[in-house]
Write a sequence for this structure.
């Protein structure tokens, strides 16, 4: 299995000399092809900063991010945009669907900006719609869909281009528990059936339990890591996560 | 911090948002000043001897038009201001959340309006003062006026008018603003940018049916007016105008209902790059603003028609004045008594002042009337011109006499072979019947002998000097026909002469002496009393230029203001849309659309919005101009395309200027700089 993402000694500072906040402090990890990695942490732990640096929206102060072996810091301007377009897929907390376009068009847009041919676009959108069970909403506008459907459309848009890495930022943050479950099942399906590599940031233990590996971040550092055993049930994995988060929380309580 | 300093800061901070508002205000003020200051302009003073009459008429006209202009500008300001408030709902929400109270927020707005008002008034008047000099020079050049006495002018009355007008408008905006702010609810202000867009979907079948109907109606009105203009009666014309207006509105309304489905049929193009996004955005615009698009289209139509015909009118006049409209210095027509006899009697013999002259008699007899010339079309003619005296004798002339005039005026001589006649008339309205009759080979019978037309249509020639057409005609017969046995007697005499003096001032002097010696009296209304009627080259040139300058001025004024209003409404609407679209462009960025692609998408979208109403307006204008051409044919006014270049220049400058400002402004709003 190839390495899709390598984060090497990533550091990110905010502030001036003498008053520096380290948002990321020597973070290193790798994500292999076909992996479903969860990153957990409390607010302010640095997980969003990490995601921004991986998704080329922000730059690191020190260290490297390699995607498919390519160093992101060497990419500039339009090349960076093109890289984001061709190798990354995004799922956001607030869906980020274009509300004057139908679900079909929203998904197709990701392909048409890559100049994919019409027939190919139609074929691929339909395929992914079947996988994510959103065929019946393809001709609807976002305002006519439920939150769960919207997020699945967003997920379809993120993976339809077959990106090397799908980045999901709190994908269940705006969903009720039922929709959350459906979405996570869908992401898992994408991971298993289409072999999509997914990196998901969340603070919700339930969502995290669908991942195959979880990295916990605290105060900009990797705090611990959990790997799901092949035979382990999701329920057991969930309990393990709760344990770690309670320790995380416990430490926070000490600060009070 | 008091409200004034907050207001000042706000304006500094959001200068770019204010760009369109400022542009509109400054242009509005400048144009308003420019045209209202025209009375005192030097160029105007050299237009004609009867300067005061022409200018006071022009000033009155401009004042009347200014009322309309002020209303348009006032509405525009309220509209533009509304856009600014919309853009800043969040900011006001924040003020109120911090405990500022609506009164204080209103105060800030009052401060802002005042600052913007004072600045734009200042810059606008400054530009207006220079612009009016420029306008003066352009008009001078256009009509080859004497600008030797030119000096820099400033009109206090125009300044006062402008300031009062705009002060009233700003007051209106103030009241409107305060009313708007006091209506706001905090929750709406804070959530202003989170509102979901509602998509109104129109019934496709209904849309298509209405679209087909409106295109058919529009087509009918256009073809009817454009190609059959001569046959269109007044009522029919009004009906066609009404149909045109209604169908323009329904056109845009129904277009929005299905245009999208049509574009989507072109799958290959539709799914390339951001085309789907652009199409959706554009269709949404058409959908949500079909009303204003139609309004813009109609306003543009009025402006374009005014421009193209107004300027062709000028070209026509200039051309006529240049090309043999004034072949002699003076023409005099006298009833009953010979002109030379009157002058001899009054001691101003023709030989004293004229270098070259001739006098020819016009005969009248019962056997040739306007009615006989209309032949089989008399009934139709009578119906159209009920007041015309169809039975009264029409003037006739001996061919040898008339050819003296033709030679002097440098025109082709009339040739009659045997029993033939020729009609001379440049009064198209009446010509249309006699021409039809001539086409049917309508004969005129005099004492039992039939005379047939020698030419297929009336000669559009004048005998008395005149700026534009409208000479009543005469009929040319062989010399021997016009005799007392046939009942013809000389009823009028026509004298044409060139002065010995050549200088304009000297010629004016002779004009005055002649007027006195011929005993011409003019009553209060400017009509000639008595039986002698005189036209001079000087008067023709003066009145023609005066009339044309007036037409050109009014046309320029209305046209520019209308085009400006259209462009400003469009610009503001697009801007306000782009504020709503900020989020969409953010999403595009996130899914990896390059800034370059986004800028292109925005550009295409803005361009389409500016082009669509212009396109339909151009089509309207084409047919409208065709009709006007037909209408003006009566005055011998043929070319409409003359004003085209000027129209294009104005459009490119005003409309194009707004287009670019809008695009740049949108780019700023959407963070694509």
């Amino acid at each position: 299995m190839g390495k899709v993402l390598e984060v090497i000694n990533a550091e990110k500072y905010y502030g001036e000399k003498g008053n520096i906040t380290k948002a990321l402090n020597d973070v290193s990890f790798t994500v292999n092809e076909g992996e479903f990695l969860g990153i957990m942490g409390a607010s302010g732990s640095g997980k969003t900063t990490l995601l921004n640096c991986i998704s080329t929206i922000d730059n690191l102060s020190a260290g490297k991010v390699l995607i498919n072996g390519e160093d992101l810091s060497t990419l500039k301007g339009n090349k960076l945009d093109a890289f984001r377009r061709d190798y990354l897929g995004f799922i956001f907390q607030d869906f980020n669907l274009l509300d004057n376009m139908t679900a079909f068009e929203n998904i197709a847009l990701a392909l048409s900006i890559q100049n994919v041919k019409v027939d190919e676009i139609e074929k691929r959108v339909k395929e992914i719609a079947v996988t994510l069970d959103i065929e019946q909403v393809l001709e609807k506008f976002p305002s006519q869909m439920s939150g769960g459907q919207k997020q699945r459309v967003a997920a379809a848009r993120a993976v339809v281009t077959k990106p090397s890495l799908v980045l999901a930022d709190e994908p269940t943050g705006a969903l009720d528990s039922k929709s959350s479950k459906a979405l996570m099942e869908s992401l898992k399906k994408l991971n298993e059936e289409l072999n999509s590599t997914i990196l998901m940031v969340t603070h919700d233990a339930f969502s995290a339990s669908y991942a195959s590996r979880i990295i916990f971040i605290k105060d900009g550092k990797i705090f611990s890591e959990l790997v799901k055993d092949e035979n382990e049930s999701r329920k057991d994995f969930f309990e393990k996560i709760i344990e770690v988060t309670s320790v995380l929380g416990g430490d926070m309580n000490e600060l009070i | 911090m008091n409200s004034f300093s907050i207001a000042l800061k706000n304006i500094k901070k959001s200068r770019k948002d204010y760009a369109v508002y400022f542009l509109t205000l400054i242009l509005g003020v400048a144009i308003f000043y420019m045209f209202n200051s025209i009375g005192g302009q030097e160029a105007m003073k050299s237009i004609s001897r009867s300067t005061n009459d022409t200018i006071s008429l022009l000033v009155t006209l401009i004042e009347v038009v200014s009322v309309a202009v002020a209303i348009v500008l006032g509405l525009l300001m309220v509209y533009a201001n509304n856009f600014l408030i919309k853009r800043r709902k969040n900011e006001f929400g924040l003020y109120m959340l911090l405990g500022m109270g609506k009164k204080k927020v209103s105060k800030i707005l009052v401060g802002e309006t005042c600052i913007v008002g004072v600045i734009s008034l200042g810059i606008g008047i400054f530009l207006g003062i220079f612009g009016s000099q420029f306008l003066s020079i352009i008009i001078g050049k256009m009509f080859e006026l004497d600008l030797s006495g030119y000096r820099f002018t400033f009109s206090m009355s125009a300044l006062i008018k402008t300031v009062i007008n705009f002060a009233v408008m700003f007051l209106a905006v103030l009241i409107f603003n305060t009313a708007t702010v006091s209506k706001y609810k905090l929750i709406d202000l804070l959530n202003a940018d989170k509102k979901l867009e509602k998509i109104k979907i129109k019934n496709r079948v209904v849309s298509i049916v209405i679209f087909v109907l409106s295109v058919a109606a529009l087509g009918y009105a256009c073809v009817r007016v454009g190609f059959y203009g001569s046959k269109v009666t007044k009522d029919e014309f009004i009906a066609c105008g009404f149909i045109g207006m209604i169908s323009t509105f329904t056109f845009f309304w129904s277009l929005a209902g299905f245009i999208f489905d049509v574009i989507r049929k072109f799958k290959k193009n539709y799914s390339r790059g951001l085309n789907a996004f652009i199409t959706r955005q554009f269709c949404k615009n058409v959908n949500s603003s079909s009303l204003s698009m139609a309004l813009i289209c109609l306003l543009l139509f009025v402006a374009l028609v005014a421009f193209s015909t107004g300027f062709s009118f000028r070209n026509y006049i200039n051309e006529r004045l240049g090309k043999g409209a004034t072949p002699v210095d003076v023409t005099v027509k006298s009833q009953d008594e010979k002109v030379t006899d009157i002058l001899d009697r009054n001691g101003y013999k023709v030989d004293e002042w004229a270098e070259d002259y001739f006098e020819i008699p016009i005969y009248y007899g019962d056997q040739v009337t306007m009615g006989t010339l209309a032949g089989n079309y008399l009934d139709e003619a009578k119906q159209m011109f009920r007041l015309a005296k169809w039975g009264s004798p029409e003037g006739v002339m001996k061919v040898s006499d008339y050819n003296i005039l033709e030679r002097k005026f440098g025109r082709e001589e009339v040739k009659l072979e045997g029993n033939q006649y020729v009609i001379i008339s440049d009064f198209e309205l009446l010509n249309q019947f006699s021409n039809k009759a001539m086409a049917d080979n309508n004969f005129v019978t005099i004492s039992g002998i039939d005379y047939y037309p020698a030419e297929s249509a009336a000669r559009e020639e004048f005998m008395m000097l005149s700026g534009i057409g409208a000479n009543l005609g005469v009929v040319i017969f062989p010399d021997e026909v016009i005799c007392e046995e046939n009942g013809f007697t000389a009823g009028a005499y026509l004298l044409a002469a060139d002065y010995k003096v050549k200088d304009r001032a000297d010629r004016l002097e002779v004009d005055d002496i002649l007027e006195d010696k011929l005993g011409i009296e003019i009553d209060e209304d400017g009509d000639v009393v008595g039986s002698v009627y005189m036209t001079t080259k000087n008067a023709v040139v003066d009145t023609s230029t005066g009339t044309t300058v007036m037409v050109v001025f009014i046309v320029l004024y209305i046209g520019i203001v209308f085009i400006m209003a259209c462009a400003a409404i469009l610009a503001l609407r697009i801007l306000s849309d782009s504020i709503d679209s900020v989020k969409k462009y953010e999403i595009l960025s996130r899914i990896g659309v390059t800034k370059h692609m986004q800028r292109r998408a925005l550009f295409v979208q803005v361009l389409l919005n500016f082009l669509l109403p212009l396109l339909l307006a151009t089509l309207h204008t084409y047919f409208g101009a065709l009709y006007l051409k037909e209408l003006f044919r009566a005055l011998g006014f043929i070319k409409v395309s003359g004003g085209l270049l000027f129209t294009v220049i104005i459009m490119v400058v005003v409309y194009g200027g707004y287009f670019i400002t809008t695009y740049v402004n949108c780019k700023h709003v959407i963070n694509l700089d």
Notes: Confidence is low (pLDDT under 50) at residues 252-256 of chain A.
